[in-house]
Amino acid sequence: MTKNELKLKLTETCKKDIKSCSYEEIYTALFKITEEESAKKVQPVTGKKLYYISAEFLIGKLLSNNLINLGLYDDVKKILEENGKTMAKLEETEPEPSLGNGGLGRLAACFLDSLATLNLPGDGIGLRYHCGLFRQSFANKVQSETPDFWLGDHSWAIETKKTYPVSLAGMEYEARLYKVAVTGYEGRTNYLNLFDLDTIDETVIKEGIAFDKTNIEKNLTLFLYPDDSDDAGRILRIYQQYLMVSAGAQLILEDAAERGSNLHNLADYVAVQINDTHPSMVIPELIRLLMEKEIEFEEAVDIVTKVCAYTNHTILAEALEKWPKHFLETVVPQLVPIIERLNNIVVEKYEDPAVAIIDQWGNVHMANMDIHFTHSTNGVAALHTEILKNSELNHFYRIYPEKFNNKTNGITFRRWLLKCNPELTNFIEKLIGPGFKKDASELEKLAAFVNDEKILKQLMKIKKNNKKAFAQWLKEKQGITVNANSMFMIQSKRLHEYKRQQLNLLYLIHLYLEIKSGHLPKKPIVAVFGAKAAPAYTIAKDIIHALLTLSKVIEADEEASKWMQIVFIENYNVTAAEKMIPACDLSEQISLASKEASGTGNMKFMLNGALTLGTMDGANVEIAETVGAENIYIFGQSSNQVICRYAEGNYCAREWYESDANIKRAIDFITGKEMTAMGWTNDLTRLKNELIYKDWFQTLPDFNAYVVRKNQAVEDYAVNPKNWAKRTLINIAMAGQFSSDRTIAEYNHEIWNLD
To answer: How far apart are the first and last CA of the chain?
Structure first.
């Protein structure tokens, strides 16, 4: 479609001159045009098809991304400008789908984009949450949660007439299918299939995000990850997961039959990727459905094992789901006999109780079932996979060494470069041509310019412009003014102790006290945070409170506020990330070594010209290997040191606190007069005690090394900007390895075999 054809179509769809249209009218028209153009790229599937099942799909706003992938974005932008309008204002019109939370969901979204871009037939399967996780606000320097009502008149999730029966606790429900078109860059259109109940009632939500967790008919898909601090909340999660996998499994079998499968040969037509343990019940559910089709149990097990593959995203016990069997007997009694038979197969074959599906206390271990009854188990970074094999899942690795493999995570460059950083995209294209948009490895051509001073100056000018744009956005959204001439340090990820926002907090306290003592940094800094804490995760919310309180202490200090500022982004989401990431100078990837499976934020920041400050954890290891030690800031314990410390059980946080003056000074400040005057004493005291008496994720042993490396980064940035620019360009040039196109190609060649 030419620009003139697009302009004519847009005018006809709006039914009036573009200049006189509101942004809402233009959005509605482009929504319709994009739908039509995406439909033209749907291709028939004759052979094998992938179904990627995930509790989360953090897809972000879709209009601009779809326009880019359809090759229409530049023309739309020009047409708007010719009529006195801007793309930025148009994008504000679109609500952001609230279908995910953190890296798990964003990865799933990137994978769908790459599948379509690589012309691979692959759909997503998930749930249509009405309120997502929650909408975050910071009244009284405390996280508050309210429903995130995002569904409106023009949702990309299009309702279909198709429903599937789902039995929950002996009651029959109808799962309605909604479809979101996923169009790849110069590729095909696949779909994200989302399920919901017609009976969901948003009005049952009372104060904050509270609701009756037992009223399944009205609440089942209201929230992603409903509060599971009580049995009712935990059982609700099982209801959700089964709705997703039961409706999804029926869709899968229906699709396969339509393509010619007799179900005995299902593995020739279907590949199922289980994204973490939330969709694990798809295994017994597929077996149950095949048995209903008169396939014997043993054959059904064999078929499902060949069809399904499992991705492990963490070694944290809280994410390796296990459910009391009596919960399953309540919610999905039809699955329990099958799970018991699967467990019998395991215990008859293997004596080791660690590999049983049902343990001696009657808990059903979902990850155990996934490993036994899939043909592939993959980690998501080289280090993570080695830890799985040698430590956390070693019992299984000894049984099934052939099943274990690594697929390092990746990101889609269409959203995380073309969409969020158009100025850098245009700059790169002028230097090396457009090939990198489809083949990210072509970014390596940028290495030819690392000693070109003119190019390096242009690169830093783009970074400055992005910092100004972020500052303007922040002023408009939260009324916060930041100095764009500062060094921007950003930590944006889910709030969890293992990700160690508390380590960053202690550094910022240390820096504040150093400034008050007359030791000034080489450059003013702005520390930016974006994170949500689970509503029932008290210590995580205490960390947020401490950071917000510290920000007010600094703000009130005339001297210190010239040199440092703390900003916490409210309701962090994909849209906010798109603004923050291009503005970042130093990317904070400071999880406790061995705990972060991969990370993808580290990849996004790297691609957009930030240097990484991090532990040797997750994909940081591979980033360090790729860019070289001189182009990254590594600190802290190794994963082996951490694992040994846990194994020995001899870590005592109080000893570190009492023996190190810097640590003691920083921790004591949390409950000092400056903080308690601004914040809530009980919350601050609870956090202080957590650090002194528990510190489960070993913040204190890494503190001094973190301070040294971070201060070194500030000095390098301030003293030698030319060398910083050079290192920035090297990071961008080497980012191609972390494209989700590469990841998906590896999944396909080694696990799915779709083509």
So the answer is: 30
Active site residue 600: yes
Spans of all domains in the chain:
1-42+51-252, 259-412+740-755, 420-738
Beta strands in 525-583 (DSSP E): 525-530, 564-569
Q: Which CATH superfamily is domain 259-412+740-755 in?
A: Glycogen Phosphorylase B; (3.40.50.2000)
- Do 420-738 and 259-412+740-755 have the same topology in CATH? yes
494 an active-site residue? yes
1-42+51-252, superfamily in CATH? Glycogen Phosphorylase B; (3.40.50.2000)
3-state helix, strand, coil in the chain (%, to 5): 55, 15, 30
Given the residues 499, 500, 541, 545, select the one marked as catalytic. 499
What DSSP assignment string belongs to 483-524? -TTSEEEEEES---GGGTHHHHHHHHHHHHHHHHTT---SS-
The mean pLDDT value for 470-475 works out to: 97
Which one of the listed residues 188, 493, 496, 523 is annotated catalytic? 493
Q: Is 493 a catalytic residue?
A: yes
Structure tokens at 127: 């749930």
Set 288, 313, 419, 545: catalytic member:
313
Q: Say how far apart CA 30 and CA 27 lie, in whole Å.
A: 5
Backbone angles phi, psi at 213, to 5 degrees: -70, -15
**Residue 349 falls in the annotated catalytic set:** no
Give yes or no: 313 in active site: yes
- Cα separation, 421 vs 463, in Å, equals 10
Per-residue model confidence as pLDDT tens digits over 570-611: 999 999 999 999 999 999 999 999 999 999 999 999 999 999
pTM of the model: 0.97
Using N-to-C axis directions, what is the helix angle for 740-747 and 103-117, rounded to 10°?
Answer: 80
